[in-house]
Amino acid sequence: MANGTTDKEASEAPSGCPVKGVGYKSSSSSVDEKPRGFLSGWFQSSNSKAGGVAQSSQSQCPVRGGTVPASIEEAANHSQLPAPGQQIPLSQQRVISTIPRGGKSDQRSDDSADRNNDDDRPAVPVHQPAHSSQWVYPSEQQFYNAMRKKGYNPPIESIPSVLRIHNAVNERSWQQVRKWEKELHNNDEPKLVKFVGRPKDLSPKAFFNSRVLMTQEPFDRHDWYVEDTHGGEPRRYVIDFYEGKEKTGDLKGNMTEQQKQSLPIMKPPSMYIDVRPALDTPGAALDRMVMAAREALPGLTAAFDSFKKSG
């Protein structure tokens, strides 16, 4: 989604998939069992240029590590033109997210321009509309082209569903960031400056949990930077994505009617998203402690918030 996003390289995915349903099945009895069904052949490596035939039929999850760009907004850098040999048309419409965009709205992300500008806020990435107040997701065609360029040959008919899943994951993550900003910084309208995909970097918390407590590793990690309302450095949030239990409901509660129509499939994917401020400052450590206390004592928290509003 933002300038500085890194690509995720192909890697072997653990068993199971956070995206349930759609004919996908996973087994907890054997880590070697291949998933079967609609998504069983979603990504097939197409590294063989001689015959033009995919050489690998290994099943991979469309959300899990190694199969998509670390941030799907990286795909927005790609062309809207159909891929060579593409016979099924894909939409070229780009969906506007609910995520407000921070940083400069009138300058493109040109390195030389940034270095000569005294404003430290990041410029608008080239794949984003210059004057849009919100981040814009890539189209189905751009997403498909990005997958092809990375060496995958996904079933083209599944692109719309998979893209909506990834958009929904971003929306879920943003709702959690908003909670931190609202409850701890009185920031009712936070803005996302940028985020960076770091799929190969375990956060300190994930490292401790997986190496010491022997829990599962996250299958992906993002670092999101939120604009400071007081003009300071953007606050960095670490987001770890874990395989989780299937959930029900939708993600449209805080959206306008227009946004609900543009994001029709918003059922939460089966995953756990761990969002917290990065420990870049002592204040971030204090934020974590305060939020832990608020979640442990919800009744007292509600009473305190009510008292603050009445005062």
Order of helices and strands: EHEHHEHEEHEHH
* Distance from first to last alpha carbon: 40 Å
Q: Structural class given helices, strands, pairing?
A: alpha+beta
User: How many helices does DSSP assign?
Assistant: 7
Strand order of the largest sheet: 3-4-5-6
What does this structure look like?
With 311 residues, the protein is of the alpha+beta class.
Write the layout of secondary structure elements.
Blueprint: E1 96-100, H1 111-115, E2 134-136, H2 140-149, H3 159-185, E3 192-197, H4 204-211, E4 220-226, E5 235-243, H5 257-262, E6 271-277, H6 282-296, H7 298-310
Antiparallel strand pairs: 1-2, 3-4, 4-5, 5-6
Relevant terms:
single chain; 4-stranded antiparallel sheet; alpha+beta
Quick recap:
The protein has about 300 residues and is of the alpha+beta class. Helix content is about 25%, strand content about 10%.
